[in-house]
Protein 1
Amino acid sequence: MKIAVCIKQVPDTTEVRVDPETNRLIREGVPSIINPDDKSGLETALRVKDTMGAVVTAVCMGPLQAEVALREALAMGCDEAVLISGREFGGSDTYATATILAAALQQLGFDLIITGREAIDGNTAQVGPQIAERLNIPQVSYVEDIQVESEHLIVKRMFEDCYQRIKVRMPCLITALAELAQPRYMTVRGIEDAYNAEIKMLAFDDLKDDLNPDSIGLKGSPTRVIRSFTKQAKGQGKKLTGMDVDEAVASIILTLEEHNII
Amino acid sequence: MDSKLSKKHQLQQELYRRFAQNEVKPIARDMDEKEEYSLELLEKMQKCGFLGIPYSKDYGGAGSDTLSYVLCMEELAKVDASTALTISVHTSLCCWCIDSFGTEEQKEKYLRPLVSGKKVGCYSLTEPNAGSDASAQQMKAVLDGDSYVLNGAKVFTTNSGFADIFVIFAMTDKSKGTRGITAFIMERGSEGLLVSDNIPRMGMRAASNCVVTLDNVRLPEANRLGREGDGFKIAMKGLEGGRIGIGAQAVGIAQGALDETISYVKKRKQFGRPISAFQNTQFKIAEMQTKIDAARLMVWRAAEAKDNHEPYGTEAAMCKLYASEVANDVTRECVQLLGGYGYTREFPVERMMRDAKITEIYEGTSEIMKMIISGAMKIK
């Protein structure tokens, strides 16, 4: 069974600080990590490999320094690692990213693609589903549990207050929640082996037959990020005390009406 | 020597750091209070390959090097010196002796399970009357047919409370002095072997440390490590490398204490401001970090020499001598900076200060280190 896991190298947003003078995010010195949802996806793939055998390939699109994320994936136990990198890909939004990843995945071949639900630096949750659409394969998102049977998966798809149990035929794509699987640690030997392994590089030239240059990079991105900023805390807010539940609810509804929110 | 780590070493350091923060730190205080090491934690470390870092993949080790091992020691010691000690004795003393002096059969039988994370080792040299004067061994080993019969007692054997494999030293020929000492490999469960409860100690309280008594323990000749009379040489060579690990442990204790202190002084307010605003605090922290950095580089220098198969005994003695002194100075100062709270068991610095003391004593006291260094300098 061939499993491809898409991973993204992201800044560790728990370590990001705001410059109190400019109110901008301080990006320097922030450590990079594998996106947590993606890491859970890696662990899921490795568990399938442990129990029934599989070839697990970690696939990452990013600048050359994203190589560290792939070394980590190899050190966890992945068999292969692919880095998709090139000037032409820079500035890609989720639509362009999914286009590029889909082209690479088509070339690499797969029975199952696992992506994370969303990245902690973008929070769009779009790339996984967009890849599936590009590849014209079934997709199930927000997966919390997976069982592999010969030609299909049985997955548990999470909602806020319930879940669905879905049978999906392979080849397919699932998006993983961080809760899906507690990721294993790398091993010391795994890291030694990871740095002896070769990471397969895919540049624009390797994918150009399957890519329209107008649909990649900044040029091919329908989304434009105008500005990133942290939300200004506007104060403590108003606390309602000394009321019972019904009184409190009535007061809140009145406030919302006064502000034309409802 | 490159003072910057390679990408591979950086990733290994990251592994050690994450493990230490997520798995060791939350239970360190509890282990110290209960004076009991968590075997569940030990198993997790075995799974990650922490118990065979510098040993060959041919025997199931991680195939890494001494530098990676000292990085592991430092990261673990930052949160729990007892954990670092448990690994150090297993790796630098027990495994190293078998790897360097064992026959192929002994390596297959004993080294493989030790470095591949299946078994834990210890090293039993010190006796009630043989500490710095390690040559005054009173444990006897007498050849009887094709077995040696061992009698005597060892004290302060780290890991002996749960170790599967012991490297142990005994006198086979008293008339030859140090050349009459022989090394052996012994398994837990040997008839006549008795291990006491933990010896109550000032620090490293979570680490297992016991009296080991042998009452007519029979060990086959195949369990002799090296030749008769090689024991003292094996013991001393083992300790040489062990000192690099202890140096790293001391650096970790110091850095861990300082990191806790930096976090504290930025929050603690007195006289209307955080105490980090006072120049006295800033200067103390600057001095401490400088000393820790210096000690760390000395440890790396010794590790690199060992990895390059160059002589490392003097460098190892120097790094242990200095790093242990720094650990004691820094932890004492950190307790001072945390004030009354630093004296409570709610904050980890008091444990770190208690833990630091032994680094000036075990695996060769600071006095012995000075003898080694001045001897190498030929100062008479």
Note: Chain A touches chain B at residues 68, 71-72, 75, 185-192, 194-195 (CB under 8 Å).
Protein 2
Amino acid sequence: MKLKISLTCGILALAITNSHAVTRVFDITGATAFRASANNAIISVLGGATTEYAYIGTKGIAGTDRAIFKGTMSAFPGDVIIVRASWSGSTAGIKAVADQDSTVQFLETTNPMSITGTNLGQGANPAPVYTTAIAQWSFSDVDKLLSERPNHTFAGGPVGVVPFMFLAGEGAPAALDNMTDQLHATLWSLGQLPIAFFTGDTADTTLVLATGRNNGSGTRATILAETQYGAFTTVKQFNATFQGTTTDPFPTGKLLVASSFGNNGHTSNGLVRDVLTRRSDDLTFNGNPLDAVFVSYLTISDALAAKTEGAQEMTYNGVAFSAENVKKGLYTLWGYQQFYRDADATAQEVTFDTAFRAAIPATLNGTDAIALTQMSIVRGGGDGGPVAPGDNYPLANP
Amino acid sequence: MKFNPKRLIVAAAAMAVATQAASAAFTFNNGDLILGFQATSGMGSTKNVFFNLGSPIAYRDGTGVANIGNISTTLNAVFSTQTTNWYDRSDVYFGVIANLNTESPTGFDNPGQVGGDPSRTFYLSAPATAPGSGLSYAPNTFASSSLGTAGSNLAGLEANLPGFTTEADGAAILDQGTQPVQWNNSWTIRNPTPGASFGTLTGGIQQNFGKVTDSTYVDLQRVLASNTGANPTGVIGGGTYETTFAIGRNGSITAVPEPSTALLGTLGVLALLRRRRA
């Protein structure tokens, strides 16, 4: 009798549970620099190979600005979990979450998704359908102290380390291969420098032009902080129109017309990559030929892709990027990736936050982003602060 | 400073700025002369006070208004303690600066001269004990590229100005506590004391209070990166004296005629009186 009652209750309980199965939607915004790792982590936490997703643009799921994912999580048995990503920039993301901005653009849940990824608006796939919503989380390349909401109370903190790389545009002379803090300061305050400052070749009249991210970008703030330029100090940057794809050889692919960005800049790293991966042989300014080559910075995932497309890697203060050089403290062009949650979150959002945050380290590939557990060095004092041995540093700790 | 009917128009415009209703946005047009105040310690050290002196070209051409305004209310509120008036504090500093364009005057993106000022032309203050007595910036003190860097740093401060609220006396206040992001480009950050103003202006551009006199002076100097397109021409990388700004113990802001002009003016008045008596 007792067994029968138990079974009946169990079946009823299952039925009730299933009848309460819901679709839960969690919205994340923030850093474009971390989007490859973030999208990968979302796919992983929602079931890996069984996760359905869709995205926009032409740079794949790793380089998209908007994506939507559907799967399941053990923390929400029986529920359908949808995660929407709107990668708009680190400090813009922090501001949106702090202000509970209801106008953050996301992909509508009705967009078709697949386990191989549906590239919306490309080929035979339907155009993306957008909606707006409040994001509860933001990834950020920089601490909130370098954002427009430095005093807002967030939950969360660092989930990894994100390195960056300086690069010279396609066709740059091989000697344009190193960026120092001094060169960075002068180049970004004036917007241009004779190439001889980098190469020593005073017979070369080529100009080096600075380009980079817009104000509000965590990538930009990280670079400006690390180089001691000042995260909020005005820069002078240039842009250029172009033709062809990033892989088209010159002259099919090339830069066309340079223009002044002033203190503004590109809204994504992908757009910076567009400028660095085309030759500037036919570049003009105000209708006049301009002998110039661009220099900028990218996150490693974009930088490695840009290198295959013609951009030239530069060392930073004489040290080449490698994950090992980052971990050893030799290469310091990196920042902590922050994952901030609005402090006023629901219980379900806290549950998702806990599960997702725990899943992130295992999904980091160790190059584009490095798990904190792999770092035996630390950066004290916030972004741009000194790099020093951590408590787990293998040698005697000063 | 010379007498000119245009001064009446400029004076009216300046008065209009100074009498803006409180809570209106602070008026700033690119290239305007900005008067900035800071305290390096104590009361008011987390705040800056700003006042817009208008176009520097007006002072260069002798059409600038003489009696510019009075901001004693704001200076009192920000810098005066219970025991010490703001004017008696030697740790309260002020300076004046203006720049229209930062592009190289010889570069591919040179925007050309505006009103006789080539790109990278600066108007800078230098402390003075009396009108015209300030140390003039010697030729080649500032390289063109140094002026470009200073211009970039100044641009960050200028970009914040229209976001400030105008006080009843025409001044504006930047408060680190409530505007921490804007503070990164504050007068305090850009004018370390001692240190180079705006990154590259060696020696700084500020004067401090705490003097025994009832007026404290800075001389305004025009610094050129190039004479190409300049009208009038001037000193490359150095200063040409234009006028003197005096901050009075009563909070008044005045442009003081250069000594030679003042002398001419006095002689003119004497001549007029003599003619009337004749």
Note: The interface with chain B takes residues 147-148, 150-151, 186, 189-192, 207, 230-236, 260, 263, 285-286, 288, 290 of chain A (CB under 8 Å).
